[in-house]
Design goal:
mainly beta, Alpha-Beta Plaits, SH3 type barrels, five-stranded antiparallel sheet, four-stranded antiparallel sheet, 2 helices, disordered N terminus
Length: about 180
């Protein structure tokens, strides 16, 4: 019996085959968990990176864990040995990302890097290792996708970012998990 993908965010232990690589799986909108559960039941190793997101509903704010890459999850397999085509017929899955003939492997180290930034709850702490003066990209909220300069970090997980908007430089305060280092 394999491990439960919900309780172990990193999925099962890899078998160590040299040809195993990570592949992106395009899922039905908001069905990442359903797809991951069905793939895990079929014996595939699955990784679903998550982030905390603040949601406003009926005048209330609450925080929930959502997919870090909405509409995508990752699976590790050897396409020469695994029955990867069965992934496309799995509930919650649209298709394995590929070129029409075979799946296309993700760059080496990409998923491993995400796993290294993931805490015990399965949440990617994209803000880990940030330094003052560094350029950061905002991940969500009204300033999503804007790039600014990290001014200050504090121990409570809040940061101040200086944004160039409206013909001026405006400091804003965010949660550390809401930013990632800009390339």
């Amino acid at each position: 019996m394999h491990s439960d993908w919900r309780t172990e965010p990193f999925g099962r232990v890899r078998h160590g085959h040299d040809a195993e690589r990570w592949y992106a799986v395009h899922t039905v909108a908001y069905r990442e968990d359903v797809a991951a559960a069905h793939l895990a039941r079929q014996g595939f190793e699955v990784f679903v990176p998550r982030r905390r997101r603040t949601v406003r509903h009926a005048r209330r704010l609450f925080t929930k864990a959502t997919a870090f890459f909405p509409g995508y999850i990752f699976t590790c397999l050897d396409p020469q040995r695994a029955r990867w085509r069965s992934i496309n017929g799995t509930i919650g899955v649209r298709a394995v990302v590929g070129d029409g003939q075979k799946p296309i492997a993700l760059p080496g180290g990409m998923v491993e890097g995400l796993k290294a930034m993931t805490n015990r709850d399965g949440i990617v702490d994209a803000g880990a290792g940030l330094r003052e003066g560094e350029r950061v990209r905002i991940l969500n909220g009204p300033f999503a996708d804007l790039v600014g300069e990290l001014l200050q970090l504090d121990d409570s997980g809040r940061i101040r970012v200086l944004l160039d908007i409206m013909n001026g430089r405006v400091p804003i305060t965010l949660q550390q998990q809401d930013v990632i280092a800009a390339d």
